Inverse folding.
């Protein structure tokens, strides 16, 4: 709604984005909690494999898009 307002109300748009960040942070925290519950059930070998996989993914995503290998 804030983006459609006429005239554009920057303060209202900023408030909407701030609220979106709050909700995204809450969702991320819940996801992290669920992830940790899952990881807590893994044995050491499975956690090591997961760590390797996540490390590769993070390195790939850290590269600029045009330098990433084709999937």
């Amino acid at each position: 709604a804030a983006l459609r307002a006429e005239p554009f109300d920057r303060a209202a748009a900023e408030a909407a984005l701030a609220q979106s960040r709050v909700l995204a942070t809450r969702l991320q925290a819940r996801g992290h909690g669920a992830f940790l519950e899952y990881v807590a059930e893994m044995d050491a070998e499975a956690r090591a494999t997961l760590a390797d996989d996540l490390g590769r993914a993070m390195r790939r995503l850290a590269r600029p898009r045009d330098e990433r290998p084709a999937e």
About this structure: The helical segments are 10-40, 44-62. The longest helix spans residues 10-40. DSSP finds two helices and no strands in the chain.
